[in-house]
Amino acid sequence: MARNRIRGRDFFNLPNILTYLRITAIPLMIVLLVPPVTSFDYNMAFLICFLATLTDYIDGIIARRHNQVTPIGKLMDPLADKLLVSAVFIMLIPLKKMQAWVTFLIISREMLITGLRALAASHGLVIQASRSGKNKMVSQSIAMLLLLLHIPAVERPLFYLGQGFVWVSIFFGYWSAGRYLVVFYWEMRKKP
């Protein structure tokens, strides 16, 4: 069986460097969101989260357009997304912007799908991201940004709008999880 060789340039192409930057932004946001949190802290975390989300969008475009999709990128990009989302939503719990049980719903879905993809890969299957999975990520990103942005005059509307996007992301997340489970089931049934 031929294996794809991982080369040094696979680690350090521009899309992967952007992914690494996204991962390194996570500890900065965690430090900023340790209570007590000032308006400046919230808005700096918002800015870092915005830039991290932007790199997620840009690295995918660059990787596809310049044929720089690598095994490392396929692993690290979704991992960076999951780490970012988990870190922000966990840090928002003591700040009363997220409830622990809602954060658990989000993180458990991510763990379920990561495990399912690993299981599928062990059987030689690749479960492609679905439109609803991408909608989940977009709505999670919007929710994080709205919950981090701190403008006292519109704090309440930002909070409720952010919470709305959290629930939209949960809907899309579990909808896509169901789809992935069905795809996995039918692909496994085809195998001898």
Quick structural overview:
The chain contains seven helices and no strands. It has helices at residues 8-11, 14-32, 39-65, 71-91, 100-122, 131-148, 155-190.
Describe the 3D structure:
It contains 7 helices and no strands. It has 192 residues and is an all-alpha fold. The protein has one domain: CDP-alcohol phosphotransferase transmembrane (TM) domain (Four Helix Bundle (Hemerythrin (Met), subunit A)).
- How does the major sheet shape up? none
Q: Number of DSSP helices?
A: 7
Which CATH class is shown?
A: Mainly Alpha
CATH topology-level name: Four Helix Bundle (Hemerythrin (Met), subunit A)
Identify the CATH homologous superfamily: CDP-alcohol phosphotransferase transmembrane (TM) domain
Question: What is the terminal-to-terminal distance?
Answer: 19 Å
In helices, the fraction of residues equals over 70%
Quaternary structure state of the chains depicted? single chain
What is the C-alpha radius of gyration, as a whole number of Å? 18 Å
The helix-and-strand class reads: mainly alpha
| Pattern of helices and strands | HHHHHHH
Q: Please state the overall shape, judged from the principal axes of the Cα atoms.
A: globular
Architecture, according to CATH? Up-down Bundle
Extended strand count: 0
Tally the structural domains.
Answer: 1
Mean pLDDT: 89
Q: In what range is the share of β-strand residues?
A: under 5%
Q: Which blocks of ≥5 consecutive residues have pLDDT under 50? A: none
